[in-house]
Amino acid sequence: MARNDERLPDVSDGRSDQDQRAAPRFTLLIRAAKLIIDDTREFLCIIRDASSMGVKVRLFSPLPDQYSTILVEMSNGDCYPLEVIWKEGEYAGLRFVDEVNLEGLLDENSGAYPKRQVRLRVQLDAMLHSGGEAVSVGFRDISQRGGSVACDKWLLMNELVRIEAGALPTIYAKVRWRNHPHYGLLFEQTFQLDELARITAPLQPDEGQSGNIANKLHG
Fold first, then answer.
1. In whole angstroms, what is the distance from residue 152 CA to residue 87 CA?
2. Which residue, 44, 143, 52, 69, is CA-closest to 103?
3. CA-CA distance, 44 to 32, in Å (whole number)?
4. Which residue, among 60, 63, 82, 79, has the nearest Cα to 13 in the 3D structure?
5. pTM
6. How distant, in Å, are the alpha carbons of 24, 73, 107, 137, 183 from that of 31?
7. What is the band of 200 on the pLDDT scale with cuts at 50, 70, 90?
8. pLDDT tens digits, residue range 6-29?
9. Tens of pLDDT along 151-184?
10. Of 87, 6, 27, 62, which Cα lies nearest the Cα of 197?
């Protein structure tokens, strides 16, 4: 159960007591998710409270002041449109735009990717060391335990590789799947959630770049 000092204003936004009672609040000690801003920027967060009306999240970086859309994506791939109701320090309250099945929201065993860790889309160049060679690769996404890269060199299944990038500590990983030139890597050492959040937040496009990318995607 949440401590009293963690109970910030809820996401009801003036709804009646009867409406609030009809949407019981569940306290989640930790549930990793990501907020998707304008379909282009992705930031890790932790859902601390959830009801059928909305969620309270812990943020690792400030929400942008200007945006068009915000989605929360759960680890299983399910997405829910949101609107920001309040922000206070590292917490924010967000209300669901559409009606939500709370049981489905909380069920990590359902969805397209049950029990999968949250993955963030990133654009990050790195050097991959394999068989005495160093080749350029580009990260396509990353999670606490792994990531996928684009690599021109053919890599072997279960091959141990070393990856170096300015934004990341040195990573040792094994190749878990391949669809050349794309490869899935399993890291030998797991990132802490807050560590990965701090690493990936600066890799997201800024507000101006985000608008340009969104226009290209939807143009």
1. 44
2. 52
3. 7
4. 82
5. 0.80
6. 18, 11, 11, 31, 27
7. very high
8. 444 455 544 444 554 455 666 665
9. 999 999 999 999 999 889 999 999 999 999 999 9
10. 62
